[in-house]
C-alpha cells in the first residue's frame, strides 16, 4: 500500500512555526505571518517610534502642501497597483465565462460600464 504524502503544513515565513503552534496565521502573496510575529513586529515598531501607541496617519490639517503632494503621488501609485490587480481579476472571471452583467454588479457599476472599463484587457 502506497502512503499518500501529506501536504507540508503552513508555516510562518518569519519564525517557521507551523500553524498548529500559533493562534493565527495570516496569508499574503506567497508568504505567511503568525500572530506572534505580528506582535513582535508591532512592539519593535512601537519601541522605534518611542511610543506604545500605534502611529496615526496625519490629518490633512497637519500636513503642508508639499507633504500632501508627496502623499498624493504615493496614493496614485497605490491606485494604479489596485487597478492592475482588479483588471487581473476581471480577466480571470471573463476567462471562466462570467458575464459582464455579473462583473458589473459585483463592482457596483452597470454591465456597460464594466465592459467599457475592462473589455480592452481581454
TrEMBL record:
GO terms for molecular function: protein dimerization activity; unfolded protein binding; zinc ion binding. Keywords: Chaperone, Metal-binding, Zinc. Zn(2+) binds at residues 12, 15, 34, 37. GO terms for biological process: protein folding. The keyword Chaperone applies. SUPFAM superfamilies: Glucocorticoid receptor-like (DNA-binding domain) (SSF57716). SMART domains: zf-C4_ClpX. It holds the Pfam family zf-C4_ClpX. PROSITE patterns: CLPX_ZB. The keyword Acyltransferase does not apply. InterPro entries: Znf_CLPX-like (IPR059188), Znf_CppX_C4 (IPR010603), Znf_CppX_C4_sf (IPR038366). Residues 1-53 form the ClpX-type ZB domain. It comes from the Bacteria. Belongs to the ClpX chaperone family. This is ClpX-type ZB domain-containing protein. It comes from Actinospica durhamensis.
